[in-house]
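Researcher: Please translate sequence to structure tokens.
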Amino acid sequence: MAKLVLLDTGVLGLATNPKATISGAVLLWIKRLLREGHRPLVPEIADYELRRELLRIASKASIETLNRMGTKLGYLPLDTETMRRAAELWAKSRAKGRPLADKHALDGDVILCAQAQLLADAYPREDVLIATTNVEHLRHFVAADEWQKI
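Model: Translation complete:
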């Protein structure tokens, strides 16, 4: 079964860092996903979280790689429905005593989880999961796994 794989900020960071020895492995992994018929996606919230840091450190090569990934892979934009779902997830996690971030933080993880949930609702015949470097808090809301295990 084809998978829709949302790449989180950590995975995108590994893939776009020309100095990271693992970046080549991540890019090969993405190519393998494509060959196998899966659809890796660049969520806008992950792009934002990574891009702001790349701009801060003026990493032109990494920004260019991120731009190419957003063009060649699918790009998952934010919309009102996503942000409203994210607000619900944020409130639920707080009510359960499991916040994913500081109460004043934007909390990109709940936004990413909202995108994954809505994508799963829209494509019920496809597996939707988040490829990440930090599984624990995402698993409370959506299917997520370490990128190497997908």
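Researcher: Any highlights?
Model: The first strand starts at residue 3 and ends at 7.
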